[in-house]
Amino acid sequence: MHLLRPSVIVLTLLCVLAPQLAFSLPGDREQAIHISADKALRDEKRGLMVYSGNVVLNQGSLHISADRITVFRIVEEGDKIVARGQPALVQQQPNPDEEVMRAHADIIEYYKDEDKLRLLSNAQIEQGGSIVKGETIEYFITQQLVKAISDQSQENSRVEVVIPANRLEKNED
User: Fold this and answer.
1) Minimal CA–CA distance to 116: which of 84, 88, 143, 149?
2) What gap in Å lies between CA 108 and CA 137, rounded to an integer?
3) 142 CB contacts (<8 Å, ≥6 apart)?
4) What domains lie within the chain, and their CATH numbers?
5) Contacts of residue 150, Cβ cutoff 8 Å, sequence gap at least 6
6) What does the DSSP assignment read for the chain?
7) pTM surpassing 0.90?
């Protein structure tokens, strides 16, 4: 009998979860970004802004809280955003009729050009009772593709996926 490798099982489960982990109301990108922090530094030469101390970033339904947020301007404003915390938190309403997506990790990176969210170290994404946990989670927003990786340096580290029974029933239809 041929057994499936754990990575094949995880990828299959992630395919079930990916549509539920949609990200961003259509109008969020057109909203102004509001940031509050204890300190702010704008470095024009290096093309970055650093906010530190109890940082809160809001844009439409997007909410990020972290100890430190760095906004990189590579080509245009906000090409890359890095949030660090213990943990850094992000939440966003995908669509008006869907539940809020919540994620946390020690480091959260957003890449505008790739439309990718990368969660590093103690990463977790949750929406509607569905949960994906791993050392690293990459979410390709446009493609609705989630990739979770365990901590390869730890012998018993595993990716964990929780799919509520009611979600499994919906996917069978």
Assistant:
1) 143
2) 10
3) 115
4) 26-172 (2.60.450.10)
5) 134, 135, 157, 158, 159
6) -PPPPHHHHHHHHHHHHGGGG----TTGGGSPPEEE-SEEEEETTTTEEEEEEEEEEEETTEEEEEEEEEEE-SSSTTSEEEEEEEEEEEEE--STTSPPEEEEEEEEEEETTTTEEEEEEEEEEEETTEEEEEEEEEEETTTTEEEEE--TTSTT---EEE--HHHHHHHH-
7) no
Q: Based on the number of CB atoms within 10 Å of its own CB, is 92 exposed (0-12), middle (13-18) or buried (19 or more)?
A: buried
Give the whole-angstrom CA distance, residue 98 versus residue 136. Answer: 25
- pLDDT tens per residue, the chain (173 residues)? 334 344 433 433 343 344 333 345 557 667 788 899 999 999 988 888 999 999 999 888 889 999 999 988 766 655 788 999 999 999 988 777 778 889 999 999 988 888 888 999 999 999 888 899 999 999 887 777 889 988 888 888 899 888 888 766 655 55
Contact 119, 136 (CB under 8 A): yes
How many Cα atoms occupy the beta-carbon half-sphere of 11 within 13 Å? Answer: 5
